[in-house]
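BUG: 3D viewer hangs when loading the predicted structure for this chain

Environment: internal workstation, default settings.
Expected: structure renders.
Actual: progress bar stalls at 90%.

Input used:
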Amino acid sequence: MPGEPAGPVLWKNVALLRGVAILAVVVNHSTVASFTLARESGTEITPSGTPVAFWTMMVLRTLTLFCVPAFFFAAGFMIARFPPTPRVAVKSAARILAKYVCWGALGMTAVGVATGEFDLAEAGTRLLTGHPLPTYWFLMVIAEFYLLAPLLLRLASRAPRLAVLIAIAAEVTDWVLFYGGASQAVWAPLAKVAYPLALHLPFFLAGLIVSKHAEVLSPCLSRRRRHCTVFLGVGCILAVAETYLVAPANLKTPSPFPGGGFSAERVSSTLLALATVLWFATRPSRQSSTSDRLRAVGLQSLPILLFTDLFRIALYAALWHLPFDHILPEQISWILLIPLTLPAFIIVCLGGPLLVARAMEEATKGRARLLW
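Structure tokens produced before the viewer hung:
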């Protein structure tokens, strides 16, 4: 839309980025679940033996690594649009932590009941260290960022160059820890709360900076749209190449790198996330039904995050007990397992949370939104 101010255009693009990011979260977790199911069922996933399955897993897990940095960029951007006072920041963090504790306890209890295994001491430790279920750590880190928001906003507003230098220094530190193997030690229980905060500070700070200086930065970025597109393509290639170098050992033996090498701490993963953020930030203003749907999905990102692990665990348990080798000829049962289960995980883990959230909101006339 010609003449539309930079702020609203960026706001729409960041909302679109958030919708794409939550889709990437679902695809990433669904890919892990599908391939874990195949591997534990006896399928060996190797570049030579099962090349299609191997490269599908490698590419999907790699190209969705941008989702977490993108979420923190979007969080910083949106917090800066409605800057909280210190008092409001504390109240917001308290509300988020209360939701985190309630949902974390509920989620672990549900999983414990379903599996028949529940250890209260372990559950308490996981809750305190931010990992009751795989996606719930995000809430704890966002609460921490809310507490720091007044200070970081002042830095982003008054000293943006210094803020950029701090973000770069934090990112380089993440790389050094990752490739030096020190990040494994940093993940000791007492550091689990602080380390994710430092890990995701660069993109959160970047969101604050871009939001506070949108009128100046947006025209500069828009003129480099083609460069951002090339950067995105190069970022994808580099990320997949690095994954092939550092991650395949995890398919059969433990990898020396965190997350089996599938980590946002890698240089190529950071470049891919930065390229993705820049590509969306430079997107020209245009209306489309697809963009509107993705923005709507982005608005439901929190209920999706809260419910998706529960749906994934339930579907995994159901699929585990299906006799694929009796339904299909044994020679092709495990060949078809991944093509059948991966779409199932994606559909259930995205559609299930959306349907449940919508039903709860309609049944309570919108009051269910207070739960997320």
